[in-house]
């Protein structure tokens, strides 16, 4: 009777006296709640993914429908094709990020790579985006120790740095600045990427790494799938590191910190 009165999938824990059965029931209930929470997050993730893919697909269909209603001039056809291409690129970028995040989260086992030169890897990634920064007249100031090493796969570090730089370049206006610094402290390598861009509400700092989360200002200022910082978080935490975001407020720039342990026990 008592079992039937409990919420679905939950065991009773009040047996009149605390014993091994109480501990077992509480452990089971905690596990059940974690599973439910995980399922809720996955359902929300699938719904958000579908919505984010449906939006550019709808835009493409609408653009094509309008264009095909009647003959157009050569210029109008080119404009329509350009719009379709933009929506296609957005969809392709989103699918690429989804696949990357899925691969990271599907990995099993504890990674045990050899230490690599973090300074050299980041310097190379900065060079790769220099033309993009120059096109917006954004200066990238680069400082840091030359002896920073951490045990992380080079491709994973590239993912982290590429997404942090991409985030800074997207949300920093023309003529702005980006500062990249690498240092060592408390047994960890710390990568800091600061920008003079749009910033964010300090109360929302924790949500920036949620999958598909984008602030209202971010939605209006630049395209993006909302998975870049989620990928950064997933990679860093796989190596037992941490990520953090800070900003004084809207339009006041932002700073992202990545801490990678130099020694893993």
So, the CATH homologous superfamily of the largest domain? Histidine kinase-like ATPase, C-terminal domain
Biggest pleated sheet = 5 strands, mixed
Instruction: Return the string of H and E elements.
Output: HHEHHEEHEEHHEE
Task: Give the neighbour order of strands across the main sheet.
Answer: 2-4-5-7-6
Residue share in helix: 40-55%
| Uncertain parts | 1-6
CATH uppermost class of the largest domain: Alpha Beta
| CATH-derived topology of the largest domain | Heat Shock Protein 90
Oligomer description = single chain
The average pLDDT score comes to 84
| Number of helices, counting only DSSP H or I runs of 4 residues or more | 7
Rg (C-alpha, Å): 23 Å
Shape by Cα distribution: globular
- From the N-terminal CA to the C-terminal CA, the straight-line distance is 49 Å
């Amino acid at each position: 009777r008592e079992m039937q009165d409990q919420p679905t999938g939950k065991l009773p824990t009040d047996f009149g006296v605390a014993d091994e059965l109480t501990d077992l029931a509480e452990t089971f209930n905690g596990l059940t709640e974690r599973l439910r929470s995980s399922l809720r997050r996955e359902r929300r993730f699938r719904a958000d993914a579908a919505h984010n893919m449906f939006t550019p697909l709808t835009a493409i269909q609408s653009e094509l429908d309008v264009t095909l209603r009647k003959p157009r001039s050569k210029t109008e056809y080119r404009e329509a094709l350009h719009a379709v291409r933009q929506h296609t690129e957005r969809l392709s970028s989103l699918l690429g990020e989804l696949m990357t995040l899925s691969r990271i989260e599907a990995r099993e086992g504890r990674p045990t790579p050899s230490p690599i030169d973090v300074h050299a890897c980041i310097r190379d990634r900065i060079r790769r985006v220099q033309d993009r920064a120059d096109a917006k007249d954004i200066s990238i100031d680069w400082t840091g120790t030359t002896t920073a090493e951490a045990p992380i796969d080079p491709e994973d570090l590239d993912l982290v740095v590429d997404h942090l730089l991409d985030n800074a370049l997207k949300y920093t206006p023309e003529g702005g600045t980006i500062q990249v610094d690498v240092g060592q402290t408390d047994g960890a390598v710390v990568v800091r990427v600061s920008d003079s861009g749009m910033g964010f509400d300090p109360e929302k700092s924790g949500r920036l790494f949620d999958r598909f989360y984008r602030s209202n200002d971010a939605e209006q200022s630049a395209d993006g799938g909302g998975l870049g910082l989620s990928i950064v978080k997933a990679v860093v935490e796989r190596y037992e590191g941490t990520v953090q975001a800070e900003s004084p407020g809207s339009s006041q720039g932002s700073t992202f910190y990545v801490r990678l342990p130099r020694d893993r026990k």
